[in-house]
Amino acid sequence: MLPIVPLQDGVTPEVSSGPLAIGIVLAYFAVVIGIGVYFYRKSRESTADFWIAGGSIPLWVQVFAVLSVTASAGSFFGYGGFAYAFGAAFAEFVLVAVAAGGLFMMIFIAAPIRRSGVYTVPDYLRQRYQSSNVRLLAAIIFTIAAWAYLIPQMTAGGITIDFVIPQLSYELGVLVGAIVFALYVSLGGMWAVTWTDFFQGIMMFVLTILPVPLVWAQLGVTGTLDAAMQIDPAFGSTSAPGLMHLGIGLVWILAFLALPQMGQRVLASDSDRTARRSFMYMNILYIFSFTLSIFWVAGAAKVLEPNLANPDYFYYEVLSSYFGPVVQGLGAAGLLSAVMSTTDALLVALSASVSHDIPQSLGFDLDERRETLLGVGVTWAGALTAAVVAFNPPAIIGLMTTLVAGGAASGLFPALGLGTWWKRGNSYGAMASMIVGFGTYGVLLFGNVMPVPYTESLVAIPLGLLTYIGVSLATRRPTGEELAGFMEFHSRESFLESEADD
């Protein structure tokens, strides 16, 4: 059950002048593809290079790479879309929940995952529980979540290209974006992903706040909010139900631990200290930039056009009203960077799960060359199939990302979040919690059971936690191998080794 939001029969902003804006976007595409070509040989040196850039990315790069992955289309488009459709207070609530998730990741999970020395989060769970079946179930959930999360990213890419090149149509824009994303990821692997994410993180931070000074100059700091609330009295508050706040808040606080792109980003860090601190510094930039976007950019969009066909077009309305074609092109490139920065990490996580985790869990030992080739094929298949679904997206972007995050958190949080710190948990509890949590979420979502939208996680996550605890306590205690796996990323020796690496 989706809340009612204006997705049609409204105004769609268009770029005022084509050639310059189109040239900037095409140049941007050329740059990211060039980065993929540059890192082609490096990414083929080993599977570690293709999946996690050799686990060697320093802090100064990781901060903006993590920012770019966190500030996906769900943030760049989603927060303003939330504010436009449901009120700025609701959007800010979701922002705080996402930031809390980043802190949760920093404090509890980032360091143990990085210390494990693996390529993927499902393999981390195999090491924790000494079970290929746990790894297989986690890889299946990761595969589903990564593919589904691609859909809102492809939607955002189509919206952006449609804005800059309306002659192509939205559908063709989705397809063009999918091809470009898959091309540079399949060429350069995680090396290309990391360096494009680094530059894209800087771009997104700058371009998120770029319209704010001009909005203040035109409408005033308080005048923007006053004018927006005169048009829509609910803009300064929230029109979403209370339980919807709780459901979405719980999802985003816990989803960082379970979203595929976050795990791959952590594993690429050069140490556990880098993994932790990158989330800490990212949060500061993230909260600052998107708070400005929620209240003033979305507020200005409400003033300029209260009847947008899709709330996700809020940023383009401001660009088309206040800026010329060069800045419009830069803004579109920034929004494409928001799309790419998460899409590329998702494609790496998707291909790693399908070509690395699932075959090894089933006993197929592929050599590095075949594994990489399979990963490239999965990258293209995932991008193109997600693009087809994005031709007719089911909701605004922020809501789609929340739905996927809820499924990932419901399926993986108990085994991953609690299991990292509770050594009594065993493989039986982990498998049972994944099946129950993910299955319950799916039944509630597709069965349209919950009376309030986006509250499925309020049932699925606690049920998964109870299942994990109950089944673990009702079955055998962890074996010596399981405890060894648990202690390996908690031991003082592992900690000191990581500190020495710094």
TrEMBL record:
Molecular function GO terms recorded: symporter activity
This protein's GO CC annotations: plasma membrane
Gene Ontology biological process terms in this record: sodium ion transport
Signal peptide start-end: none
Membrane topology note: Multi-pass membrane protein
Record family assignment: Belongs to the sodium:solute symporter (SSF) (TC 2.A.21) family.
Entry keyword set: Cell membrane, Ion transport, Membrane, Sodium, Sodium transport, Symport, Transmembrane, Transmembrane helix, Transport
This protein's name: Sodium:solute symporter
PROSITE patterns the record matches: NA_SOLUT_SYMP_3 (PS50283)
Residue intervals passing through the bilayer: 20-40, 52-77, 83-113, 134-152, 172-194, 201-219, 239-259, 279-298, 330-352, 373-391, 397-416, 428-446, 458-475
Pfam family for this entry, one: SSF
Cell location: Cell membrane
